[in-house]
Design goal:
Helices cover 32% and strands 29% of the residues. With 261 residues, it is an alpha/beta fold. Keywords: ATP-binding, Nucleotide-binding, Translocase, Transport.
């Protein structure tokens, strides 16, 4: 199902953070949400997950308003991974991942075989199976980040919304996580991720939503959006954009854009 943001506006602390956001995010594709600091990227993702109520406009999953979905159904449909997510109980890592299955189970019901299999798959995909019995607060920051992604993957949502999912990860695991997100999209589900690294965005994104000052600068297929002109307009830097051998984009920042008269 498509995730549609229709004339979305968000006001926080009397400041308009998002204004007039209209875009359709498509399933089966990875959409990278890009923009400079303060552009509203995290706010957009939290609003799409119904964690912030918009001042104007709606977020729809298919033809249904996300805000009016039953919370348990919404949790089954949309998985959200915030940046700097924490765990408040020092429980075993496998138990943290299993929390992703709670929306699929009746209250107080024990996990079924499908729940256990989903947890196993999620931990294998994030290379955290060997951490299963470790208390989560004993993990490194990068290990914890992978465990929290596994928790979202275990829920098998129709849409996975991730805010800076690569933060704190070493380069190898950054590539591994991007591969896992692409795999989720290839399964027909939707993935929207906030990224700051243009190299990673060019590698993983099928579509790009480029924000500036709370508005859509441009959106569409990655090759059409991630052009030197568009990236200069958004970030104020010169960027070299090339195709790699796999068909993705290699976007290399060169330096600050020169001021023009």
């Amino acid at each position: 199902m498509e995730l549609t943001l229709d004339d979305l506006g968000v006001t926080l602390s009397r400041r308009r953070v998002l204004d007039g956001i209209s875009v359709i995010l498509r399933p089966g594709r990875v959409t990278a949400i890009l923009g400079p600091n303060g552009a509203g990227k995290s706010t957009l993702l939290r609003t799409a997950a119904a964690l912030i109520a918009p001042a104007t406009g709606t977020v729809r999953l298919g033809d249904r308003n996300v805000a009016t979905l039953d919370p348990r159904e919404r949790a089954r449909r949309i998985g959200y991974l915030p940046q700097n997510a924490g765990v408040h109980w020092n429980i075993a890592t496998s138990e943290v991942v299993a929390l992703g299955r709670l929306p699929h189970r009746a209250p107080f019901a024990a996990p079924g075989q499908h729940d256990l299999d989903a947890v196993t798959r999620a931990m294998a995909a994030t290379e955290t199976a060997h951490l299963a019995d470790r208390p989560v607060n004993e993990l490194s920051g990068g290990e914890r980040a992978r465990v929290l992604l596994a928790r979202v993957l275990a829920g098998e949502p129709d849409w996975l919304l991730a805010d800076e999912p690569l933060a704190g990860l070493d380069p190898r695991h950054q590539f591994d996580i991007l591969d896992r997100l692409q795999e989720v999209a290839r399964q027909g589900r939707g993935v929207a991720i906030v990224l700051h690294d243009l190299l990673h965005a060019g590698r993983v994104a099928d579509d790009v939503l480029l924000l500036k000052e709370g508005r859509v600068l441009t959106s569409g297929e990655a090759a059409a959006v991630m052009t030197p002109d568009n990236l200069r307009a958004a970030f104020g830097v010169e960027v070299s954009v090339q195709r790699n051998t796999g068909g993705g984009l290699v976007c290399t920042p060169i330096g600050r854009a020169l001021a023009t008269a």
